[in-house]
Amino acid sequence: MKKGRIYTIIFMLVISAVFTLLLAGANSYYLPKIRENEQLAEKTAILYVFDIDQSGSASEVLARFDENVKETTVSGVDLYAYTSSDGAPIAYAVPFSGAGLWGTINGYMGVSADLDKITGLVFTSHSETPGLGGRIDELSYREQFKNLKITAGTKLAYGEDGGGQIDAITGATSTSNAVLRILNQLLDDTISQMEEANND
Fold this sequence. Notes:
Blueprint: H1 2-49, H2 58-68, E1 69-74, E2 77-83, E3 89-99, E4 104-112, E5 118-125, H3 139-142, H4 173-199
Helix pairs in contact: 1-2
């Protein structure tokens, strides 16, 4: 009886070790491809906030990104700039991160070079509830922010308080409010800092 138990335990340990090694090997093998896909997703998101075509193969998207977008720093803020052929900035993709209902919400807000308009909004990662707060990924929600005018002291708000330009997600009040809190913080801190640098 005891021998049977020992063999069972040894068998389970060997099987566990074999599958652990197989998973570790598969992870190592696919890690470069995973990183490549993550970079592609990030660059596609940045193209979206600049309203630049994101269609085509991975190589076409990456070439379009390299052709139009440059990493830069504006008044101490690391961001991406959409530039014209002569290198003049057309718009900026400003990264943001903040607390949502269930975890951190990360993304980019696109703003025009003169910082008076939102060119686009995208979320690159979040843990919000699928079908509720997770609907922040839906085009109909994100597109509401496109071409919104922003000025010094701007506060984004839903419904009548915001001039009826943007609506919260029905049934996801906490996530909707978290998004506004994150974006208003971005406007108060980072965009204001960039505006001050532009005015100097």
